[in-house]
Design goal:
It is built from 7 helices and 2 strands; from the N terminus they run ααααββααα. α2 crosses α5, α5 crosses α6 and α5 packs across α7. The N terminus is likely disordered.
C-alpha cells in the first residue's frame, strides 16, 4: 500500500510540473509543425559554420587592429589580447597561415595577407554594424561592445542590412543632444 501512495504522489507531482515546465519554456523553443527537420538542420548547420569561421575572423581582426595601433602584431600580443596561452595563439596563427590569411615568419611580426586584410575589414564592419545597433537601442557601451563580439558572427547579410537601416532610422529619431533611452 505504501508504494502505491508514493507512486501516486510522484505521478501527481510530475503531472503538475509538466504544465509549469511548458509554460516556462520560451515559445520559440517549442517545435512547431512549420519547423520541419530540413529547416532546423539548416539552422544548426549555419551556426556550426559560423563557429568555424568565428575564430579566424576574430584573430585577423585583432591582428589588423594591433598593426594599426602599434605598427606590428606580435604573437605575444595576440595571446595577451585573446586571453589564451602562447601555444594556443601559435596554433591558431599556424592554421590562419595555412588558410592564406596570415604571414608568419620566425622571430618576426605577423602580417595579414590580402585575403586576411579583406576578412578583417568585413569582420570589423559587421562588428561595427551590430555594436552601433545595440548602442542605438540604448544598450550601454560596455555591454554593446561585449555582446557585439559574439553576435557579429551569427547574423546573415540580410539581418545586418536591416540592423544598419534600423540604426540609421533610430538615429534620425534621436532627440537633439540626447539618446534613444532618454525619450
Amino acid at each position: 500500500m505504501m508504494t502505491w501512495h508514493i507512486d501516486l504522489a510522484m505521478a501527481n507531482i510530475c503531472s503538475a510540473a509538466l504544465p509549469m515546465r511548458q509554460a516556462a519554456m520560451h515559445p520559440d523553443a517549442v517545435m512547431t509543425e512549420s519547423q520541419n527537420p530540413d529547416t532546423r538542420a539548416a539552422a544548426f548547420r549555419k551556426v556550426r559554420e559560423a563557429h568555424q569561421t568565428e575564430m579566424a575572423e576574430d584573430y585577423v581582426e585583432l591582428i589588423g587592429d594591433l598593426i594599426a595601433r602599434f605598427g606590428e602584431a606580435r604573437l605575444t600580443d595576440l595571446a595577451e589580447h585573446t586571453g589564451v596561452t602562447l601555444a594556443t595563439a601559435s596554433k591558431v596563427v599556424q592554421r590562419l597561415s595555412r588558410e592564406g590569411l596570415v604571414q608568419n615568419r620566425p622571430y618576426r611580426s605577423l602580417f595579414l595577407t590580402p585575403a586576411g586584410e579583406e576578412l578583417a575589414r568585413v569582420a570589423r564592419e559587421r562588428h561595427r554594424i551590430v555594436q552601433d545597433f545595440l548602442l542605438a537601442i540604448g544598450v550601454d557601451p560596455a555591454t554593446a561592445a561585449l555582446d557585439s563580439e559574439g553576435i557579429e558572427h551569427h547574423v546573415s547579410e540580410t539581418t545586418l542590412a536591416r540592423l544598419k537601416a534600423l540604426t540609421a532610422q533610430l538615429a534620425d529619431q534621436r532627440p537633439p543632444g540626447g539618446n534613444l533611452s532618454s525619450r
